[in-house]
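General statements about sequence and structure are easier to judge against a single worked case. For one protein, we set the task of working out the structure tokens from the amino acid sequence alone. The sequence in question and its structure tokens are set out directly beneath this paragraph.
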Amino acid sequence: MPEQFSINVTLDDEGIGIVEWSGHTDQKTLDEALSLAADDALIAQGAHRLEVQVPAWDRMAVRALHNARFRREGVRRRAIRDDSGELADVLCYARLAVDQVYGPAGFTGVMDSVLPKHRVIGHVLFRDEQGRVLLAETTYKTDWELPGGVVEPDEPPRVGAEREIVEELGIHVQLSQPLVVDWMPPYLGWGDAVEFIFDGGVLDEATRARMRLPETEIRAFHWVEPDDVAPHVYSLSARRLARLLTWSDADGARAFYTEDGREVEASDPSGS
């Protein structure tokens, strides 16, 4: 005889609840039971946070959590064995008393927590009066890179790049349109990302004299001749910089888009 379905919320003294269920049921019943249990704990019992962990393969549970407006907060990697004995992920969900639950914002808030998120990077191309390129030697990898870094959540790439330049070089710049927008494939333990490279123009001698190394992450700055850039940077960066350093007035102010540092060829719509 199948085990009777039941759902339970255990609240601690801090108002945090753990939601668990057992037994067999259908999707509609699980959806309704989870929503009712969550509403009761958060509204009637005064909980401020509910937590649930479910195996990644349990699509019924995941769907019910989404319908009850729980948001995904993380993944416990390879934390449980499936029926075949293979290790699988566990998904961690939570719902807060202050979360928007009803209306369009409730649904989109859930989707924002489960859909892919890409890193966005803002780097800046600086040159000196001799045309040399400024590269940063970091403390955590062997290849050098342009100054700049990862953009914060809700921060425009341009503003993020300006902030990173203050943090890394100690100087203030005002940036405009990007020179290139590049999709970067996974590399060195990182997932894929989208990078914006902005033109920082020419740094004169007085500005260069004001540059200061940050306390962490960057070991040294190097002014590098264009022909000597490639041996110091990752192959992806070398491809992009080779294109940027041959930029001419004929190209105009138009930014271009690349993937893995390579320009994308337009397809022929006629199919010929």
Notes: The longest strand covers residues 71-81.
